Amino acid sequence: MRALVIDDSRTMRRIVSAALEELGFTTLQAGDGQQALDLLESGEEVDLACIDWNMPVMDGLTFVTRVRANSAWRDITLMMVTTESEHGQIVRALAAGAHEYLIKPFTPDAIRDKLDLLGLIPAEEHV
Amino acid sequence: MTAAVEHDQVYAIAEEVFSAMIDGEPGYLRPWDGELPVAAEPLVAWVDVHGELAGRAAVTTDLETAHELTRALLGMGADEPVGPEDLNDAFGEVANVVGGNVKALLPTQGSLSLPVVATVLPEVPGTSLTHELRLDWRGRSIVVVVWLFQ
Amino acid sequence: MSLTQDTFAFVADVVRRRSAIQLETGKEYLVESRLLPIARDAGHPGVDAYIREVRAAQREADLTQIVDALTTNETSWFRDNTPFSALRTHIVPALRAERPVLDTLRVWSAACSTGQEPYSLAMTLSDVLGPGARFDITATDLSERVLAQARSGRYSQLEVNRGLPAPMMVRYFTRNGHDWQIAEELRRTITFQQHNLLDLPPHGPFDIVFLRNVLIYFDLETKRSILSRVHRVLRPGGFLVLGAAETTIGVDHDWERVPVDRGSVYRPVQAGAVPSPRPAPSTLAGVVPGTTPAPFAPATRPGLARPVTASTTTTTFPPTRTRPTGSAFEQGVTR
């Protein structure tokens, strides 16, 4: 499994990537939505994208909308990982096409739980 | 943001940020007892909330504590040197996560600025301090402040 | 501020014996931070003074409070996921197929801790049964403390972050300050009550029993007696769901294992259909011949052992009896 971790904070990219790698993912990183789109357009294939909301250049919600508009990327699972935590913001992200939503702060276990819901935990990782 | 944001809620946010992302378990953050020490090298990180209700959420501490926070967030060893880029990014992210959660307490929808890290918090005319939360993290002082813009 | 070695050793010993959690050297700061609010509430300036009083007074309630404060009890929504998909894809369809009218579905969520399991069941059943669905859930735990939170339906943001699907979150939760409040429509489908698994079961019959990650803490004889009590309150054709690492196989023969998805569920075999190694029904409620007092908990909890024979002389279902919290194995703590 490959995951694209999109966050303008390198600290957060490292934390999310480490949690995913622990679960057997290989990770790619991008510092904003545009960089992430560029990676996908260059042919990088990923199963999952973890997406911050507030970023310079292109925010996470715009990225989600752009990915959902391209049928070539319809198999990518999109999970927001953001400090935006109003009920209405979660509704907006789901309406734009995000599959899951994780609020910062989170524990590595919380990432694992979400991926389990999404069917993205490899069988050998199951206890 | 005075009426909208309660002291206990800001404390709950700080506790969650520390227990989930910095310490890995709850119990290392408590209210600071007594007078705050004067920081030799102060450091502050903040985010602004824009919208009908606007304000600022900031985290202030001293440089050494900010180094410790950075090491904890990045899973670095106790004596590993912390570079300025990691410091700015990690400490700024603490303010970002605190600020984003404070924003969600507001009755109106607002947007969040990207975090800024500096040695002093610049004064904004016409602001009023609404909360000052003094915290003790492993014997070190950290203060979370929430300001209201008028 | 710092803790004496003596205080730390006492606290670590209490916690280890009651929760099997080991507080290693280096956790002194953690112990002090978590116990300081309790010490101050009790009128002491610090934790050392408080622990001195605890040791002198020897009150059960103090020890329970200490263990509660030091054992984090994180439970996920839709924990392990598989049992909830089994409910959707297998259990409810099977019950529907076998009954001409699927009237009120009754579910027992045993050792429900802070309520994530029964609420996850309620969300799943609302979904799968559709509008006008009628079901009720009896959710039990030994600890009044965890039940109080479960009843309130109020969860911290870290708690709602654990395994709650985002579509369920926006549908059933509203913000309450920094916390999240679960919808009343779910809350009213659940009755929370205090219950010890070694006592008579709650009033059945049930169509579905969730008893997950509890049996692993008991020895074979106790497992067997718990399963036999569950058997008695499960309707013929009903379903028992255990934890991923648990099974009835080799424990109790009155169950048929049904593989579902990545796991298994169990259905009761009618009494008499299979030769039963279980004792006669009149002694089922906790007494296993040859073991007096019946083993209550793992060997790491010798202080908690208590004969389970005390309350089992009646064959009718009494109303729920209350017992002092913490006088027995805290189901919530070790999950």
TrEMBL record, chain A:
Annotated GO biological processes are: phosphorelay signal transduction system
The segment(s) forming the Response regulatory domain are 2-119
Residues with PTM 4-aspartylphosphate: D52
Gene3D superfamilies assigned: 3.40.50.2300
Q: Which SUPFAM superfamilies match?
A: CheY-like
- Specify whether Cell membrane is a keyword of the entry: no
Keywords, A to Z, come to: Phosphoprotein
Q: What is this protein called?
A: Response regulator
Species whose genome carries this gene: Cellulomonas triticagri
TrEMBL record, chain B:
Q: Which UniProt keywords apply?
A: Chemotaxis
Residues crossing the lipid bilayer are none
Boundaries of every Chemotaxis phosphatase CheX-like domain copy: 44-118
Q: Which GO terms describe its biological process?
A: chemotaxis
Source organism, top-level taxon: Bacteria
* SUPFAM superfamilies cross-referenced by the UniProt entry: CheC-like
Q: Name one Pfam family in it.
A: CheX
List the protein's name.
Chemotaxis protein CheX
TrEMBL record, chain C:
Its catalytic activity? L-glutamyl-[protein] + S-adenosyl-L-methionine = [protein]-L-glutamate 5-O-methyl ester + S-adenosyl-L-homocysteine
Q: Which UniProt keywords apply?
A: Methyltransferase, S-adenosyl-L-methionine, Transferase
The record's annotation in Gene3D superfamilies points to:
Chemotaxis receptor methyltransferase CheR, N-terminal domain, Vaccinia Virus protein VP39
Top EC class of this enzyme: transferase
Q: Which SUPFAM superfamilies does this entry report, sorted A to Z?
A: Chemotaxis receptor methyltransferase CheR, N-terminal domain (SSF47757), S-adenosyl-L-methionine-dependent methyltransferases (SSF53335)
Q: Where is this region: Disordered?
A: 271-335
Enzyme Commission code: 2.1.1.80
For this entry, list what GO says about its biological process.
methylation
SMART domains in the record: MeTrc (SM00138)
| Composition bias type Low complexity, residue spans | 289-325
Q: Where is the CheR-type methyltransferase domain?
A: 1-271
Q: Which GO terms describe its molecular function?
A: protein-glutamate O-methyltransferase activity
Q: What is this protein called?
A: protein-glutamate O-methyltransferase
Q: Which organism is it from?
A: Cellulomonas triticagri
